[in-house]
């Protein structure tokens, strides 16, 4: 399902009725979560609060390694599990866990520890900006402009599409009987290109479904996020 949705990005377009949300160097928060994880609902609720902030790009990435506990998460994908394991390797950590929040590609926190996550967001916001991303819709395509603010950097340009809020009844597993709401569930992730540290423009089709898209400029597949922006319906 995840790969099929991601493939749609390359072939189909739609008009985003909204524009880029007001933001100045928004901080990216990635929540690695699962419907089969009994510790995750408080973190999912916290992410929903973060998603309301203009200065935060909040993304929900569902992993599949808890599916064996009696409930298969319909939002989970091996790609998101691989991304989380990539962060573990980057941080020289052997194991992964849920709920985990990664702030700006660097700081790892337990996802329901609000004070620690909010502190990490504040520190990321206070850091000097390395680059700026500008998004503009033109004739059904997304124009991405990357403006360097610091010399000597390079990285990967990622495009992420994410969904409208989803309400899910959990009939089995650790969260049996609960009705949970998930926001900004990632449904597609693709690499737009490589950034060489200079001013750069890229274009890409935008997805036919969902709430919006985010563009991240990151040191590599994982690692520090230099800049990000989003555009929503």
Automatic annotation (TrEMBL):
KW Signal (keyword) present: yes
Query: Which InterPro entries does the protein's record reference?
Result: DUF1223, Thioredoxin-like_sf
Q: Which domain of life is it from?
A: Bacteria
Q: Where is the signal peptide?
A: 1-22
SUPFAM superfamilies the UniProt entry points to: Thioredoxin-like
Q: Does the keyword Repressor apply?
A: no
Keyword vocabulary terms for this entry? Signal
Pfam families annotated for this entry? DUF1223
Q: Which PANTHER family match?
A: LIPOPROTEIN LIPID ATTACHMENT SITE-LIKE PROTEIN, PUTATIVE (DUF1223)-RELATED, PTHR36057
Official protein name in the record: DUF1223 domain-containing protein
Which taxonomic lineage is given here?
A: Bacteria, Pseudomonadati, Pseudomonadota, Alphaproteobacteria, Rhodobacterales
